[in-house]
Structure formats: C-alpha cells, structure tokens
Design goal:
It is a single chain. The chain has about 240 residues and is α/β, with parallel strands linked by helices. It folds into two domains: about 5-105, 3-Layer(bba) Sandwich (FAD/NAD(P)-binding domain), CATH 3.50.50.60; about 105-235, 3-Layer(bba) Sandwich (FAD/NAD(P)-binding domain), CATH 3.50.50. It has helices at about 15-25, 45-50, 55-60, 65-70, 125-140, 150-160, 180-195, and strands at about 5-10, 30-35, 40, 60-65, 75, 80-85, 85-90, 95, 100, 105-110, 140-145, 165-170, 200, 205-210, 210-215, 220, 225-230, 230-235.
C-alpha cells in the first residue's frame, strides 16, 4: 500500500504562535520549515516584567534550534520577503510549500498621532530594552501609559511594584480593559486605585510634546515618560 504523501509546510514567524503550530503539528505527515530571522523565541507576555526588572532575558527567551531539532522541524534563520505561488522567497533561500502559515505578529498602531515618536513601547524586545535603559538612566518621576488593555495594565502594575514614580493610565474609552466585561473593569479599577495608579478614562490623546500629553478633551498631562500600549496592526 502506498504511503500518503507528506505535506510541505512553511511557517513564517518563530514567535509563540509559529512555535505552537510546530509543536502541535508534529509528529505528523508534515515536513515543516520554520522561517525566522532571530535565533530565539521571545515571550512577549513577560515584556512588562522585564521592563520593571522583575524578569531576566533568560526568563523570556529560549533558543529555537534545539526546539526545532527536538520536534523534527527545520529552522531557517532568514527573513521571509514574499510569497511567489508555492514558494517563500527569503533573504538567501527559497522554501517550497504545500501550505504556508503566516505568524509574523503585529506592530504598533499609532493612528497618526502627532509626536508619537517620543513614546516607548513593550511590543518588541528591542523596544522594551530601549524603555528599560531609559528608566534606569533617567529615573522618570511621572510615567503615562497610553492604553488600558492587558499590556497597559500589566505594565502599570509591574512598574508600580518596582519603582518610585507617579503612574497614570490613559484610556480613550469609558473604562479600562474594555475588551472584558464591565464587572472585570470595575474590579481592576478598584485594584489599580488601591495600588496608587491614576486612571484617566474617556481621555483621547491628541498630541505628545516634550513636556507631556495633550488630550482632546480635558486638562493636559505632564509626564517624563510615555509608554504606548493603545493599539496594534498586522505586521
């Protein structure tokens, strides 16, 4: 009896999503190539803890090669440039596929707000390291976190527990954690207030300046450091 043909699968992106596809697909009737320019996987969920000095690089990174070798996948340390029919064109190589999975993550969405280049973020490890260096060198006394989703709330809590600074969360909608139920928002608002974290809801950022943040409606907010956690878009 003829054995079934093995599918050639190209997974573009070696973050948590791409690695989970590899882990759950193997062993199976697939020949998998994981395409990722970095040599390591990074746990984005731990970036706030790393920013606040509560986690080390070793806590949030792991090498991809041993993982791929263990599960039987091939790792290609190159950047994928484009898809051409049934082929992924990379920096130096080409990878043929029957199925392609794009798991390249997301980048920050700044919505065209003026002065946004002065903010920091915890969306990538490089950006988190830049923010961490600023924290350690400048020791800001007033920090504004723009956006109150999970990343914004986690960042505020991690910083509150680690440094002496006045921390504000700015949210354009009427309550924090707007993707959750109102009950969850109410509980978290109370918890953050008890931690001494200041909440500004229904506050839309209009512009960022050197000395602070201009809001569309309401008083401006002075700050020494602004961290953007208010939106992402596909890479």
């Amino acid at each position: 009896m003829k054995s079934p043909q093995r599918l050639k699968v190209a997974i573009i992106g070696g973050g948590i999503a791409g690695a989970e596809v590899v882990r759950n697909a193997l062993p199976g009737p697939y020949d998998i190539t994981l395409i990722e320019p970095k040599s390591q996987i990074e746990c984005q969920a731990l970036y706030p803890e790393y920013l606040a000095g509560k986690a080390s690089l070793e806590d949030l990174t792991a090498p991809l090669k041993p993982f791929c070798d263990r599960v039987g996948a091939e790792l290609l340390n190159e950047k994928a440039l484009c898809l051409e029919r049934t082929r992924v064109l990379c920096d130096k190589s080409q990878v043929d596929f029957d199925v392609a999975v794009i798991a390249t993550g997301a980048s920050q969405n700044y919505f065209g707000i003026k002065g946004i280049e002065s903010t920091f973020s915890v969306n990538t490890l490089d950006e988190t390291e830049r923010a961490k260096k600023f924290l350690e060198k400048e020791e800001p006394k007033r920090i504004a976190i723009i956006g109150s989703g999970l990343t914004g709330v986690e960042t505020a809590c991690a910083l509150r527990e680690s440094i002496e600074a006045e921390i504000h969360i700015i949210e354009a909608k009427s309550r924090i954690l707007p993707q959750f139920s109102e009950n969850v928002s109410t509980i978290m608002e109370k918890a953050l207030a008890e931690m001494g974290i200041n909440l500004l809801s229904s506050a839309r950022v209009k512009e960022l300046k050197e000395d602070g943040i201009t809001l569309s409606d309401g008083p401006n907010l002075g700050c020494d450091m602004a961290i953007w956690t208010a939106g992402i878009k596909p890479t």
